[in-house]
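Suppose a colleague, Dr. K., hands you the sequence of a protein chain of 289 amino acids and asks what its three-dimensional shape might be. Before reaching for any lab equipment, you can write down a predicted structure in token form. Begin with the sequence itself:
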Amino acid sequence: MTVKEALQWGRQVLQMTGQGVQEAGRDVQVLLGHVLGVERSALYAHPERELTDRELQHLTTLLERRRRGEPVAYLLGHKEFFGLDLLVDRRVLIPRPETELLVEAVLTEARSRLGRGEVPLIADIGTGSGAIAVALAVNESRLPYLYACDSSAAALEVARLNCERHGVSGRVRLLQGDLVQPLPEPVDLLAANLPYVGLEEREQLAPDVRDFEPPEALFAGPRGLALLERLLLQLRERPVLKERAKVFLEIGYQQREALEAFARQLWPSLQVACQRDYAGQERLLILSF
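The predicted structure, expressed as tokens, is then:
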């Protein structure tokens, strides 16, 4: 089978599962490029190239897994985030483009403080694959170290691999435990992309998200607020924030009012701001203490 024939066949296989022409075409290009170890553009430069038996078997296996709904990122074993190629598998949530907004906001605040001669200490709570922590460490070398916490030992193993992959193992300190409890010292900036999907929303999720990504990294109670509210309670009860600290929370698009009201009950004079994502949804809640 040639590259051209494999692309046509693979697209037809995926379309039979209900995928649209564009999505099926994109997916088979990505998968075939992965099998052959080439960029997608190279597939069209040599359409006559014959696949070996091993390559065809590998492609067939990947197409079958994709046909059953498994996300492409898990099939490839990696995902791009903030310009970095991160390892991902079913132990961790696949990083989303929306979370890049959180990284940008934390970097902006960190650089502002660095510009004033301060060296902010940062913690990433619920680090998962380590996407946020690694992106921060790679993009701001003036940060001597930062913390990345997760309750899952399996997720922290993926985060460790990503730290090694991008040369920041010495600067990202991985800690296992419940939310902020593992932090050994107060921090200036705290970032958290915690689960915020409500159990009542489960059937609204795309099948490749609902059926394959780890549920503990997606769901947080009936309305999706359980972990975010518990994080705020821990911040109120434990001395983990320095004076003038800021907290950056990725939230669901309908959660701002409830979370802001909850936070103001804990800190009546709190300053609260919100940023919208690329789709115009309220996505990033910023609490200034």
